[in-house]
Amino acid sequence: MSTTTPTPVPGTASPSVMIAVDIGASSGRVIIGRLPAASGQAPGTLEMEVVHRFPNGVTEIDGSLHWDAEAIYAQVKSGLEAAAAVVRQSGERVVSIGIDTWAVDYGLLDAEGQLIAPPHAYRDARTDAVIPTVHGALSPERLYAIGGLQFLPFNTVYQLAAEEDLAGKRALMIPDLLAYWLTGAERTEETNASTTALFDAREVAWSDVVFDAIGAPQLFADLIAPGETYGALRPEVAAETGLDPAVTVVAVGSHDTASAVAAVPAGDAEFAYVSSGTWSLVGLELDEPVLTEASRAANFTNERGVDGTIRYLQNVGGLWLLQECTRTWAEEGRGRELADLLGAAAALPAGGPVVDANASGFIAPNDMPQRLRAAVEAGGGELPAAPAELGSGVDADQAATVRCIVDSLAAGYAASLAQASELAGKHPEVIHIVGGGSQNTLLCQLTADATGLPVVAGPVEATAQGNLLVQARAAGLIKGGLNRLRAAIAVDPVRYEPQR
């Protein structure tokens, strides 16, 4: 591991703090970040304090899935108000705010800059009908050669093609929409822009070719890179939250995976990463995109990271499968503690059934256990049908289903990393699992077993840490590249060695 100490900037030992707004598909948080240091000394390791949590989720409106963006914004302001109260009591000073969320989704604005309707959620099926039309206008090969983006049915290019009327409208990705409401400035942060398939990976610019092909105007705002500034808070926002009007909103890796990868505690060894949450993002950190036909055929994506890096990765399902199963079982009156479910699954022998965790049939919510059972049976396997109780209090079908999910994720990670290594010509020596999945000991061990590589688990809070450290550098509290940022992360990682 690297032991490089961040370089201090003279005169920056003031009690300055940053605020991270970190929003996922199921929840959001507002977090204060500090880099405490004695006067004249280098900044210490990053400290975080969660001041506000709130639930998030899709809402069904007229048969379609949407995000309640205005409710999310109200929660963000509540979190900023809570942060301002903490800072007033401590005598600290807020210097900036950074926002990260999921990718691909956007809000449409009218000519007056008002949100037209709640943004569609990526799990909505509205894109299914337009995918053949888009590919008829611009072949998948040409689309990949421009943007280097893996095919997913909910990519922004398909969502935009599904819109009925875009005349006179403007669009902002979800984190940019929140930043716009805070500052009044319309910008598009480039790590999220790179997830749209409307972006030229070589030119680092919007692609007129793609917009023309789908018959849509280029309606997104100009690009901004992590570390650049949207602007200062609008006076009314400052008054409402109690923050100083001079506080700025700084662009971070606004795609949450970009922030998470920026916080991977990597040293000098070649590494792979798994950002494990609702989705699993599995890949390598590169200097240049891989835009070959072989890469397209393998369905790898080239998304931008902090400091112009490339996140060369695949989406491999994720803990969404487990979350949906536990939710369904709870509704059936069979709710169990996650630790008990994983313990019962770990007690089962290896070699059980696996499924393609990234199959499109698992994208939508509801009745995940039955869909997993059907996929296992379609592959010639079986899961216990009757809920026979095991000694742990976990039903046999639950234990087998959880083991199937975790085995399938580990197998998916191994397959993706083997392909990524071959296509990019980069061979990792270690795998870093960050995010919520780093706490899942069964998943970490099975990943080490499946890949034959050691797994280093942690930090859990990688997304918020990456967000805050980019802000700290923008404020002059840290100086240097990604290695310097990563060196400021306090982590006591757990290492898993391959056992078979």
Automatic annotation (TrEMBL):
It comes from the Bacteria. SUPFAM superfamilies: Actin-like ATPase domain. Residues 272-475 form the Carbohydrate kinase FGGY C-terminal domain. Pfam families: FGGY_C (PF02782), FGGY_N (PF00370). One of its GO terms (molecular function) is kinase activity. The keyword Transport does not apply. Keywords: ATP-binding, Disulfide bond, Kinase, Nucleotide-binding, Rhamnose metabolism, Transferase. InterPro entries: ATPase_NBD, FGGY_C, FGGY_N, Rhamnulokinase. Residues 17-261 form the Carbohydrate kinase FGGY N-terminal domain. Belongs to the FGGY kinase family. This is Carbohydrate kinase. It comes from Zhihengliuella salsuginis.
